[in-house]
Amino acid sequence: MRAMRFAILTIAMLALVLVTASAQPIISAKSGVIADLEGKVFLDNQALESSVTHFPDMKENSVLRTEDGRAEVLLPPGYVLRIGENASFKMLTNRLIDTRVEMLTGSGIVEVDENSKDTNVVVALKAGAATLTKTGVYRFDSEPARIKVFNGTASVLLGEKTILVPTGHMLSLTGDAPMVEKFDTGDTDALDHWARRRAEAMAVANVSAAKYVNDNYGKLNHSSWGFNPYFGLYTYIPMYGTMCNPYYDYCYYSPGVVYNRFYAPAATYNNNLGQGRSFNPGYSTMGGTSTGVSNTVAAAPSMSSSPAMSSASTASSAAASSSAGHGSAASGGGHGK
After folding, report:
1. E strand or H helix at 37, and its extent?
2. Which residues pair with 251 in a beta bridge?
3. Pick from 23, 163, 201, 288: CA 20 to 30 A from residue 233's CA?
4. Percent of the chain as helix, strand, coil, to the nearest 5
5. How far is it, in rounded angstroms, from Cα 258 to Cα 283?
6. pLDDT tens for residues 69-79?
7. Whether residue 144 has a cis bond before it, omega within 30° of 0
8. Predicted TM-score (pTM) of this structure
9. Which alpha helices (H) appear in the chain, and where do they start and end?
10. Contact, 221 vs 206, CB < 8 A?
11. Helices and strands counted in the chain (H then E)
12. Is pLDDT at 268 greater than 50 in this prediction?
């Protein structure tokens, strides 16, 4: 019996060491981590397999291609590219301060949750090159070639001419004269629905991941990507403040905001009538910055006390179900505001 207890204790201690080691930050200075894939996905014609322990990354000039599958790729912190079935894109440059990709076939959606003067993200499509200058959601279709702005502003360079594409408009790149016109943002398909479910899962995973950073590191020096092992996915963690996507209407919190808004003991003060009142000061919404460093952090398990977790309990299942089935609009088929 004593030998068995000793063996169990030894295994438990080894497990604790492994968990602690896995929680250490891992610095990455490149865009192109393939954070999620389902179905048939190929990197430079090599088949990839889904894993929660290994995330391949794209080198410059690498091509990611799907057949009957989808993939999610991390760009600079706050920028995510998701491609649909029978799609492909090329990583032209993968520096966080200057990331450039080219859509080759199919369709892709870029979610932008943080825009920074220190970050430049360009998506090339046919003869156009779109710089994404505001938070929002952007879609790139290769056939017919067009750029849709669900929310935000795309600055598209065509030859020597720059065309601004605002919210609710699309730029057609077919024909002799590129044209900007309105489109129905509610007219969505399976790729749009899947991208929304992934965005929801990432936003919910942010709370416990940011809490872990607050408890173990105090704060971040840069906005970061953090891996949350309890959700089995990467999430975005702003350096400070709160970042909300205006289309999806999901928010990401910095470590300090998460602690003060969801975990800090309520403070008590006396109002003018001398009556005690409980309040949590929280933080005001601020803009974050990204300076070219991406951290990978594990998250703390204490999620049950978070109002964000309880108010979005269905999103935890979305983290698991986001890769189940193609074309389902069960979680987020409509459009955001």
Report:
1. strand 33-43
2. 244
3. 288
4. 20, 35, 40
5. 9
6. 999 999 999 99
7. yes
8. 0.74
9. 2-22, 190-216, 255-258, 307-311, 313-321
10. no
11. 5, 23
12. no
User: Look-up: residue for tokens 């710089």?
Assistant: 131
Tokens standing for residue 12: 């438990």
The token pair at 242 is 């709160």
pLDDT of residue 298: 37
Q: What are phi and psi of 276, to 5 degrees?
A: -70, 145
Tokens in use for 83? 């491609």
User: Which structure tokens are listed for 205?
Assistant: 């995973």
Angle at 122 between CA 120 and CA 126, to 5 degrees: 165
Over range 156-160, report the average pLDDT. 93
* Closest to 70 in 3D by CA, of 40, 45, 43: 40
pLDDT at 52: 80
pLDDT at 28: 58
> CA-to-CA distance for 316 and 198, rounded, in angstroms?
11
Q: How far apart are CA 192 and CA 83, in angstroms?
A: 10
Place of tokens 């019996």: 1
220-256 tens-digit pLDDT:
888 999 999 889 899 999 998 999 999 999 999 999 9
Residue 317, pLDDT > 80, answer: no
> What pLDDT is attached to residue 139?
98
Distance CA 156, CA 148 (A): 11
DSSP 162: E
Q: Which residues, 6+ apart, have CB-to-CB distance to 172 below 8 Å?
A: 144, 145, 146, 178, 179, 181
- Dihedral of the alpha carbons of 259, 263, 264, 270, in degrees to the nearest 10: 130
Higher pLDDT, 262 or 40: 40
E strands, 161-293, where? 161-165, 169-172, 179-182, 224-228, 233-237, 242-244, 251-253, 267-270, 276-279
Nearest to 225 by CA among 247, 210, 244: 210
Q: Give the tens place of pLDDT for each residue, 170-194.
A: 999 987 788 899 999 999 999 999 9
What are the structural domains, with CATH classification, of the chain? 26-187 (2.60.120.1440), 191-321 (no CATH)
242: DSSP letter: E
